[in-house]
Specification:
The protein has 191 residues and is mainly α. The protein contains nine helices and no strands.
Length: 191
């Protein structure tokens, strides 16, 4: 099939957007207050190209936040439909911490796009299903509301990243503490 001018332009647009997202993630991970000019340079595009894709820093940050949620949702969708739930949720927590570390600059940025709350809620659906399944199997405390338990997992990720960001713990120390806290939060109480 011949490549048309429109097809080539679309491919260029997608390639530039991907380069901007990748460049922004890399740069903002080490320099959260980087300017749009610095983001353009890190992305290998000029400022005009950056602004054609994202008219403001807020738009860029919303797109990056959505990407972080997409990455988290992808990990959540891999939660198994059967088998032990707590072990699967522990692995999910570990993967979510890795994603949180990659996008830690999002935690330091004021979220201005209320539409992302719906995206967050949809990304949590597989986790809620796993928690309910764990409650039915007797692995997870049935007194916990699944939405609260899922929120606790999210807060563990945020807590880990915050502790690492301010230098209070290494990533591995905080990751271990999150796993301990996870078990204490969700486990069926000993009678």
């Amino acid at each position: 099939m011949p490549v048309t001018h429109a097809t080539q332009v679309r491919a260029d647009v997608e390639r530039n957007r991907a380069a901007i997202m990748t460049g922004a993630i890399g740069l903002l991970g080490v320099e959260p207050n980087a300017s749009m000019q610095q983001i353009a340079e890190a992305s290998g595009v000029n400022r005009a190209t950056l602004y054609r894709h994202f008219a403001s820093r807020d738009q860029l940050m919303s797109a990056l936040h959505a990407k972080a949620l997409d990455d988290s949702a992808e990990v959540a969708r891999r939660l198994p439909a059967d088998g032990p739930v707590v072990a699967a949720l522990r692995a999910f927590l570990d993967d979510a911490i890795t994603i949180g570390e990659r996008y830690r600059f999002i935690l330091m940025y004021h979220r201005t796009d209320p539409g992302l709350f719906d995206v967050e809620a949809r990304a949590t659906v597989p986790v809620l299903k796993a928690i309910r399944r764990g409650q039915e199997a007797g692995e997870i405390d049935p007194r916990l509301e699944p939405v609260f338990a899922a929120g606790q997992i999210t807060m563990l990720v945020i807590g880990v990243i915050g502790l690492v960001e301010r230098g209070a713990m290494t990533l591995e120390q905080a990751r271990r503490q999150a796993q301990i806290s996870f078990g204490n939060t969700l486990a069926v109480p000993v009678r």
